[in-house]
Amino acid sequence: MDEKVMLVSPSGEKIEKKLVCFFKSIDDDRPNIKNIPIIAIDTGIMNGSNYVLEFYWEQNGMYQPINNEAAWDEVKKTIIDVINGKIEVAGVL
Amino acid sequence: MAKLILMKKNEISVPEEKKGKQIAVKENNIVALHEFYKNNYIKTEEEPKMDSLPEQKEEILEQEQLFPGTPIQPGNANETLDNSIMEEPVIPSNFDIESTAPAIENGISVSSNGTNEEQAINLTLEENNGAKGEQTINLILEENQLDQSKSEELDPELKEIKERLDKVIEDLNNYKKKIKLLETEVNQNLEKSREVLKDTQAAAKIMSIQQERQREINDEINSGSTIVNDSSRTLQMNTAA
């Protein structure tokens, strides 16, 4: 069964999305995202034959778009590592 | 090897717009991500949940365990490759390969194309062991996503300032209109005053002429009276004689 997550806006509006991945990196060589929860959500939108994923990172209790270029680079690297199987799962929260 | 802690939440708080940083990925990659998360979360969920960061583990997960039906299949990947991009990668000016090289074991070649509004970054990964298989992850980034998210942060303040400025501009424009109307009114009054002045001057001239005429008449009357008086005196003298 697909994992789901509810996105809740400040006005109380809720929208349910398919959760693809939810993690936080504990790598010292990824300092811009270390210990910051990052969530990947399937938007359900197609771009040609590709699927559009949305990424948020937690900032002050709210999940925001990743607007930091260095952090975004590290997120992309992490995703590539996951796809390539070069990931160690240290635990769950 | 990169280390992650997997998480789970039923609800997350997001901004009003509910729009994150977007990328486009192939179906097999999104499936791989999801399978990784699902399998590993379930697997490690069976272990005691952590309250703090765990000690570093040397456990290495085999790729086959992570990705049943792994997307890194030479046959499948090759079908989706764009040969022109693979053969002649072009490094975009905003992509620094040297900074990424230490963090990524595989070689990376980057090409980019597209319009100013949309930049397609094709990352082509080659296995170090010389395997024939290649995997292309097409990441399509909307350049305005970064700008948009930045502007979303600044919007409340800027919005207020903009509203105030708009109000000031509107007031100024209204004042300008009023000034223009007043100017028109003043000009009209001035014109009327000029006409009145002309009429007054004309009337004054007519009066002056009339006064002159009156003087002439008076002079005539006076000279006529003199003649009559002289005639009357003469007549009296003649009568006395």
- Beta-strand portion of chain B reads 15-25%
Shape of chain A: globular
Structural class of chain B: alpha+beta
Q: What fraction, in percent, of the residue positions of chain A are helical?
A: 10-25%
Strand order of the largest sheet of chain B: 4-5-6
Task: Count the DSSP helices of chain A.
Answer: 1
Task: Please give the largest β-sheet of chain A.
Answer: 5 strands, antiparallel
Widest beta sheet: strand line-up of chain A: 1-2-3-4-5
Biggest beta-sheet profile of chain B: 3 strands, antiparallel
Share of helical residues of chain B? 55-70%
Would you identify the regions of chain B where 5 or more consecutive residues have pLDDT less than 50? 52-138, 140-147
H and E string of chain A = EEEEEHE
Using DSSP, what is the number of strands of chain B? Answer: 6
Average pLDDT for all residues of chain A? 91
What is the gyration radius of chain B calculated from CA atoms? 51 Å
Strand percentage of chain A lies at: over 45%
Query: For the CA atoms, what is the radius of gyration of chain A?
Result: 14 Å
Task: Please tally the β strands of chain A and state the result.
Answer: 6
For the termini of chain A, the CA-CA separation is 20 Å
Looking at the structure, what is the overall shape of chain B? rod-shaped
What does this structure look like?
- The complex is a heterodimer of chains A (93) and B (241).
- With 93 residues, chain A is of the alpha+beta class.
- Chain A has one domain.
- Chain A has one helix at residues 69-84, and strands spanning 4-8, 14-25, 38-47, 50-59, 62-65, 87-92.
- Chain A starts with a strand and ends with a strand.
- In chain A, 48% of the residues are buried.
- The mean pLDDT of chain A is 91.
- Chain B has a three-stranded antiparallel beta sheet with strand order 4-5-6.
- Chain B starts with a strand and ends with a helix.
- The longest helix of chain B is centred in the last third of the chain and has 98 residues, at 143-240.
- By secondary structure, chain B is an alpha+beta fold.
- In chain B, a hairpin with a 7-residue loop joins strand 5 (118-126) and strand 6 (134-142).
- Strand 2 (14-25) of chain A pairs antiparallel with strand 1 (2-6) of chain B.
